[in-house]
Amino acid sequence: MGIINTHALTAVRRVVPGCVAVLLGLVLLVGSHRFAHAGMPVTTKLMDPHMEITLRRLALPGDRQRADAIVADARRLVAKYADVADAERDGFAKFLPNLKLPQEHFTNDAYAHEAWSGTFDSNHPTSLIYNRTASGLHIVGVMYTASNLATEADLDGKVPMSVGTWHRHVNLCWAPKGTPILPAYFGAHPMFGFNGSIWTRDACDAEGGIFSPIEFGWMIHVWPNEPSQEAIWSIHGEDERHDMVGEHEHHGGMLAVASAGPLPIPLDHLPAAPVRSGDGARGASVFAQNCASCHGAAGRDGPDAPALASRGLSPGQVAFMVRNPHAIDVTSEMPQLPISDQDLADVAAYVSQL
Ligand code: HEC
To answer: Domains in the chain, please, with CATH?
Structure first.
């Protein structure tokens, strides 16, 4: 049941009318824990402390066609189910039927279970997504799902990861029994749940809560009538870069993007671009002017970005990242800097020698 519940939750976490909270809380408590230890190797990053997303990969032959075929099916679905009565007739049921939400998920149990069992059929979305407008429910997208047992190859086989971004809810803390649900999950500063300030096991234990490292399964949205590829495949149908790590204080410390710790984009996941050999000494000043404000002096310690020194980055990888900062991590806060080819070659040489 967890997989079914989560669709509405994704929508709900942005704007939650108070009355939703009680029912939602019950659903959350019932749905948790089942798949908590089923994580498998998929290259991901935390978009925020409670949201894990897959990194993109470079396109392989056939990816574009596969993605376009999915979008074409999604577009047919949103046309077919423009009238919500047609969706209901075909087995899609509104989640939390007694409540009006700004965005509604209509979920098909049979399709959800089919997806959970490993099958991907772009004509069988787990949910149809409707926005509530003045003139009624307006269909905007579809959601496909996969189980947490899926490997990266499995996910890529369903929706090419050069195009789409899978996401799932992680690091959730459920309030101890008897906690009033409304303030705990949906107050101005909730401690628990999808927007909770608690995201570590220790902080959760300290509050007597129940920690859930991975909640529900993988999800991916398609917004087939959006004008651009990025918007069609965006995580929530809006600009991903708005919802960034570091905006919120969290119990157990800020989520570290910075300096220490593994590179956000693992080396084996960061492609190399062709770049001519540059002058590392000149590159030092290019770096000081363009990169050090985030990555720190000599790439050693950045307030807002990972340390780059002694990482084993090749010049080509540096060049790739500078020219295409959002190709692999669509939510990266690294800007696309308009530097010349010569500066690029020099800074790439410099960083690779750090
Ligand atoms: C506004 C801040 C900012 C500036 C300026 C900036 N970066 Fe970055 N950079 C980042 C962030 C944040 C990341 C982490 C990537 C992510 O979030 O996925 C990053 C990642 C990288 C990576 C990949 C590290 C990894 O995770 O594998 C390289 C290489 C890199 N930057 C090089 C540079 C170079 C060279 C410059 C200057 C030409 C530069 N950056 C300028 C913020 C910045």
So the answer is: 2-242 (no CATH), 267-353 (1.10.760.10)
Measured in angstroms, how far is the CA atom of residue 332 from the centroid of ligand 1?
8
Residue 345 to residues 17, 278, 290, 352, Cα–Cα distance (Å) = 53, 5, 14, 11
Backbone Cα Rg of the chain: 22
The alpha carbon of 308 and the centre of ligand 1 are apart by a number of angstroms equal to 8
- Which DSSP state fits 262? S
pLDDT band at 292 (very low <50, low <70, confident <90, very high): very high
Which residue has a Cα nearest atom 42 of ligand 1? 334
Q: Which residue minimizes the CA distance to atom 25 of ligand 1? A: 265
Q: What are phi and psi of 32, to 5 degrees?
A: -80, 170
**Distance from C-alpha of 236 to C-alpha of 264, rounded to nearest angstrom:** 21
Question: Among the atoms of ligand 1, which is closest to the Cα of residue 337?
Answer: 38
Give the HSE-up count for residue 176: Cα atoms under 13 Å, Cβ half-sphere. 7
Ligand 1 atom 9: the closest Cα is on which residue? 334
- Whole-number Å distance, alpha carbon 164 to ligand 1 midpoint, is 22
pLDDT digits (tens, 9 = 90+) for 28-85: 333 333 333 344 478 888 888 888 999 998 899 999 999 999 999 999 999 999 999 9
pLDDT at residue 12, rounded to an integer: 38
CB distance 196 to 211 below 8 Å = no
pLDDT at 243 over 80: no
Give the pLDDT of residue 260. 58
Q: Kindly tell me the burial class for residue 75, based on how many C-beta atoms sit within 10 Å of its own C-beta (0-12, 13-18, 19 or more).
A: middle
Nearest CA to ligand 1 atom 36: 291
